[in-house]
């Protein structure tokens, strides 16, 4: 890099082999203004790993679900099936039937799963924005399954209640069907929530770098003749929609990262000119 004075003798002109940068100290507001702290930019570019705070919420929701099913079974047995103690339940339930109380509680539980799905979706979008595209796509279906299970359970409960209104003389069969639906929901929800929790806990424990950084590291440590499959292009047997979506996510992350790098370069250039 060489530096010389122009004909007016007022400003330096810096020549580089690749690019030529001409800055006026008197006219350029970037040079005259306060410099951006390199440490602050480096902190943004190399940000700390942020843990995903959804594992404990999933475990709490699973615990609430187990408690709900246990209480529903106890309520149905003592207030609907056992004839000897039904009159005692009427003192506490007043005019409500045990099935009505269970359904009200089930709707409340379903609303909790809706709130959980929205919270998880928001947190996973933030994870995608930080460059963890593979983790985002690998948990896309996993975080939706519990809500889908409960929505299907709600539809089944509505079918049972509709049948009960048409054929009310079936004894305790509808109570058993209702408890069976609740048991199936719990049976399917436990593996979904546990698998999601394990996935998030492992992600927080590993503290991986963004996908782009991992691919760069793989290229750096690979030999000159090795071929690394980054799965960013279309290949035979690939899903075109997934490839396009991954490229869109990758472009969005790189735009944010390049913006921070541009600010860092401008700050270093301004510092160099002043020095």
Automatic annotation (TrEMBL):
Which UniProt keyword terms apply here? Membrane, Transmembrane, Transmembrane helix
| Residues spanning the membrane | 56-81, 101-120, 147-167, 173-198
Membrane topology value: Multi-pass membrane protein
Compartments reported by the entry: Membrane
GO CC list: late endosome; lysosomal membrane
* Superkingdom assignment: Eukaryota
Major site of localization recorded for this protein: membrane
Family stated for the protein in its record: Belongs to the TMEM192 family.
Q: What is this protein called?
A: Transmembrane protein 192
